[in-house]
Amino acid sequence: NRNCMVGLECSQDWGWSPYLFSPLLCMHTLSHTCCRDTDKVWSTVSHDLQMQTSVVRNGLEKYSVLQLNYSATMDQISAITSSAEYCEQYISYSCKMSRLLNTPDGNPYTWWVGKANEKHYYWGGSGPGIQKCACGIERNCTDPKYYCNCDADAKQWRKDAGLLSYKEQLPVSQVVVGDIDRSGSESKLTVGPVRCQGDRNYWNAASFITPSSYLHFSTFQGETSADISFYFKTSAPDGVFLENLGNTDFIKLELKSAIEVSFSFDVGNGPVEIIVRSPNPLNDDQWHRVIAERNVKQASLRVDQLPQEIRKAPTEGHTRLELYSQLYVGAAGGQRGFLGCIRSLRMNGVTLDLEERAKVTLGVKPGCSGHCTSYGMYCENGGKCVEKYNGYSCDCSKTAYDGPFCIKDVGAFFEEGMWLRYNFQSPGISVKDLVSRTMLSSTDHDNTVPDLRLNKEALSFSFSTTKSPCVLLYISSYTQDYMAVLVKPSGNLQIRYNLGGTGEPYNIDVDHRNMANGQPHSVNVTRNERDLVLQLDHYPPASYSLPTASDTQFNSPKALFLGKVIETGKIDQDIYQYNTPGFTGCLSRVQFNQIAPLKAALRPTNTSSHVHVQGELVESNCGASPLTIPPMSAATDPWHLDSASADFPYNGQAIGDGVNRNSAIIGGVIAVVIFTILCTLVFLIRYMFRHKGTYHTNEAKGAESAESADAAIMNNDPNFTETIDESKKEWLI
């Protein structure tokens, strides 16, 4: 019972539904524990089959049957798997001359029995209807002619292992092994516990869109004990959450006002009402949680984190709650119903399927949009949106970024000689921490990281430096495989892969840019088996392919180095030379699959124990992602050359076509002449039109007082000289 209580507390702290376990299961299954694994809470049910159990033949029987007895009943395990979001069970078969599934078309030698005593002919890492093992799905079996390693019937020990994750078929109750009757045949079987996480009912919700909307369910059976919990959000000031009636008995929960939640009932002693008042409005369209309990001793009501209100039951009187009507969620009995959303409604440990009932009910819609539905896109760079009671938050733990929205680069300045090592193998590491969400690889819990083989990688980071050559990043292995990102003496970037199968490593040289120019540059490298994609800064991605002879698996990754390689064993000669004196500059947002080594060194996380730093690591954003303008496309770039052999007119070479050159000169001269003529014409036209309307008057001064025109002329000038008086000049324009 203590384990279950720990599980409840752990669940509440980590945002997981606190109702995965029923009280009955907690009391009767002490070995059913709740464990926190990174950001998930796992419920585990164990059995009595030992790890690496040797499979032996029983007398003359052709098959060996291994039975698994669990610490919980099948009904209890079924309740766990059906309510969980995800379940898994590890299964492993180690073999020496003992075949497993034979072929996809043949009769299997071994099978396992799951829920409802159904036989299943697939193995861990595969799926129903596919008679293959994990290596057959990933196409990496030791003998490519077979779909399981054990089916090759080798005389050396082989193993087929993986996770069974179709929870509808779990748990494994029995394993039947067949090919063990030959001389030299040996086999060992391991079946892990059933592990489940999450609660698929946590977001089982319904939206009530009219005041008369309601859902109805069968009568609530809570004669002596009632345990009711749910979440709600609304903008309405009041409304009935749920109600169930008897002849005189009843039970009801309602939003009585914008700040009051009421829990009322009557067991025959008269109505009892408990009210919790909130200092803040509850109709703020945010999620609020209600927990109401009643037993023969007391009743209580709690809303969010507000103080719990408790009412003691009378020492004498009725104690049984006798109800007969259906349970109504929403409006009932002509009362104003609830407007808004209700989710995760549980009554005495049973989750009511609001969504399914809402699908066939008018006025009610299945589901309810949470904050992440509307605002989840603001969690960037792979950040995960997490619903909160009064909003949402962004979980950046699986990213190389920080901040409220996972957009702050986490970076550091490296002085000469500094280096950082991230060890993939460390006590307590899970292989899943290394493998990305979309990556197919071994999930063998018995394996350590040296047994891991990667078919895919995703690497991204940004950097700035003025020194070359240097090693930016290096990933070593327990084999000769490695991956490196280098800056060559010329300042150009080089991506180097060595996965075996070829005499020399495969290099990708980026020669068109000097990356050691002190500016921030971003690097993104992804590999899917033989296909490689490289993107620098905001330039278009470039695709490459490993040589045909090259292996496609990165075997047994060991450690990731930043700034310098400090590794035992043989190191590539070029990398050895680039290693001195080491990287000087800034590195930022370094991420390899789901591992962020630089962030692990600068932020205390559960992976910080994997990191070792030589020198003083100082946080800095000097290597943050470049904010350069994306280059113009070829269609809109006026300087784009259609082919590499085309010639620039200014590179010192003559233009090939002399006729075109002469035509250009002649056209220029003609254009200048025409322009000159036009300018001249415009000047002349303006001058001519300016004087064309001008006339002179010779009317003498004093003409207005003279008797005649002749007298006026003679009076003004005795010499009768014709004059032009400028003051009398008039202009007609």
UniProtKB/TrEMBL annotation:
It is found in: Membrane. Residues 204-368, 436-622 form the Laminin G domain. InterPro entries: ConA-like_dom_sf, EGF, Laminin_G, Neurexin-like, Neurexin-related_CASP. Disulfide bonds join C341-C368. Gene3D superfamilies: 2.60.120.1000, 2.60.120.200, Laminin. Keywords: Cell adhesion, Disulfide bond, EGF-like domain, Membrane, Repeat, Signal, Transmembrane, Transmembrane helix. Residues 369-407 form the EGF-like domain. GO terms for biological process: cell adhesion. Signal peptide: none annotated. This is Contactin associated protein 2. It comes from Gopherus agassizii.
